[in-house]
Amino acid sequence: MNYFVTGIDTDSGKTLVSAILCEALEADYWKPVQAGLPRDSDTVKGLISNTATRIHPEAYLLQTPASPHAAAKIDGVEISLDNFRLPETMNTLIIEGAGGCLVPLNDRDFVIDIARRLHSQIILVADLYLGSINHTLLTCEALTNRKLPVKGIIFNGDTNAESERIILHHTGWPRLLNISKEKNITRETVRHYAHQLKSSLA
Question: Per the annotation, does 46 bind a ligand?
Fold first, then answer.
């Protein structure tokens, strides 16, 4: 089983969610495309406590913090879907996307096309802010139109009951977890949310 973590925007909280998933499932982690520093792989490694998780190297490690298609152009490479192959592991794998699901990889393909190629189940991270209902439902529509399997939604930020209700109502997808706006993100924080998440993924 592998899960592809995507978000409604660049700063939705995908890396934190990926760390929580890795801790909850003692799963491996893979960031196929990293554009700029710090590496999300290093962040996840610093946030997990279990010893079973293995961090797999990126397929593309780009230097510029920008959209993958733009960062690749600066580096003189072209990202190809053919180069995305699942790392060799018998473990559950958490795959973290780059930016939102329709961030371009090149002139043809988007980040979410990696999930389709790798037959991944989607976990959507929706941060809560003014305008996030629109951004979340547009993302959900894109996933639905592509007929991609969605495990559920993780809400990140101060709870907004009505925003969450209307999003779940229109998508029909389950809520997997609510993450509060934390002042400090530590291993203890990740363990706390991992414990909550386990029952949702059972």
Answer: no
Q: Is 167 helix (H, G, I), strand (E, B) or coil?
A: helix
Closest CA to 28 of 41, 43, 10, 13: 41
**Residue 157 · residue 128 · CB < 8 Å:** yes
Strand, coil or helix: 136:
helix
Annotation-wise, does 16 bind a ligand?
yes
User: Is the pTM value of this prediction over 0.85?
Assistant: yes
Q: Is 13 annotated as a binding residue?
A: yes
Residues spanned by the domain of 56: 2-91+98-201
Give the up-direction half-sphere exposure of residue 89: CA atoms within 13 A in the CB hemisphere. Answer: 21
Is 31 one of the catalytic residues? Answer: yes
Q: What is the CATH number of the domain that holds 58?
A: 3.40.50.300
Residue 178, classed as helix, strand or coil, is strand
Q: Which residue is catalytic, options 31, 151, 181, 198? A: 31
Structural domain count, the chain:
1
**What ranges in 105-186 are assigned the alpha helix state H?**
112-117, 132-145, 161-171
pLDDT < 70 regions, the chain: none
